[in-house]
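Researcher: Checking consistency across runs. Here is GMP/IMP nucleotidase again:
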Amino acid sequence: MPLPPLQVDWNHIDTVHLDMDGTLLDRHFDDHFWLEHVPRRYAEKNGIDESAAREKLYRMFRSQEKTLNWTDLDYWSAQLGLDIPVLKEEVHHLIAVHPFVTEFLLFLRQHGKKVYLVTNAHGKTLNLKLRRTTIGGYFDGVISAHDLGLPKEDPLFWGELQRKIPYDPERTMLGEDSETNLETARRFGIRYLIYVGRFSSTMQPLQSKDFHTIHYFSELIPRDGGMAVRI
């Protein structure tokens, strides 16, 4: 059964938390980097077949899902014997902001909303991506899960975040491309939960059965001069 339409009245929202990879930025960069570029460089360094490198590394990656190690560049540099930050610089031209993200961030700033980038990304990844894009200046704060010692997949994350930056869950929106993270936020009580189904420019968009889905953040910007939209 499809979800009933969600009425978003911006007069009732004070705070907006936004994920980075796949939500604001095209996840094509990350998918290409971890699934193609790193295995290729690992195979070259170790003198093994690239398909064998992929099989080994994919197994290693899966073992760290939903942990901080999943996004810890220092951890993977040590595990793989590669300088992961340097390898990211090799393909940084693929880092891209999704369409309409800047317009949405500008809308939030113009209407006095508190806007936070809340991500599992490691600090070295954040530095690279904020350096390569123009979105950093729109945020009131940037919080990495590594700062809190918990990934967003952990139900305790949102309480730890609230201690760092006070917010009222009933008057807060979260935009995410992870249904797992949206679920932990829902359990904490965050009211407005938005699933970004178009997380990569190279993949077909997905539709969530459990959360209201958008493809572009322009869908959350009122067009009639008012402050309400339905999705």
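Researcher: Does this match what you'd expect to see?
Model: One thing to look at in this run: The chain has two domains: 7-26+95-230, 29-93.
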